[in-house]
Amino acid sequence: MALASEIIAELARYLDTAEMERREVTKITDQHPEMDWDDAYAIQAALRQRQQARGIGMAGYKAMLANMLGRRGGSLPAGAFIMTGGATAAVAVEAGDTVTVRYQSLGSLSMRVV
Questions:
Q1: First to last CA, the chain
Q2: Which of 7, 51, 78, 90 is 20 to 30 Å from 29 at the Cα level?
Q3: How many whole angstroms separate alpha carbon 90 and alpha carbon 86?
Q4: How many CB atoms lie within 10 A of CB 15?
């Protein structure tokens, strides 16, 4: 990680406050170009801790997804990994591209676009 723990906590506070106040945020990598993926995951974890401390949990997201799948005849298996957001902007891909994502302690996933 390139960022100090104090900066990670401050960035999590900045993002959390912006969400609560419905304010736009500037791209944090403009102010911290040294930031790496481990920093992004640490900021995300700190943000989740702040939200959970206020009683905001992931249950609502999971229930919404399970209900939507149920209406379409699907289901959500126990232990399913649900990613409700991303740490980056959308990236355009084309046929032949290979995309790899890494989920901190969960491992990585690669796919080839056809």
A1: 34
A2: 51
A3: 9
A4: 17
CA angle, 103 as apex, 20 and 113 as ends, to 5°? 105
Beta bridge partners of 112: 98
Give the global pTM.
0.53
HEC readout, 71-101: HCCCCCCCCCCCCCCCCCCCCCCCCCCEEEE
Reported as a single tens digit per residue, the pLDDT across 12-42 is 999 999 888 888 888 888 899 999 988 998 9
Contact 80, 57 (CB under 8 A): no
In whole angstroms, what separates CA 38 from the centre of its chain?
Answer: 12
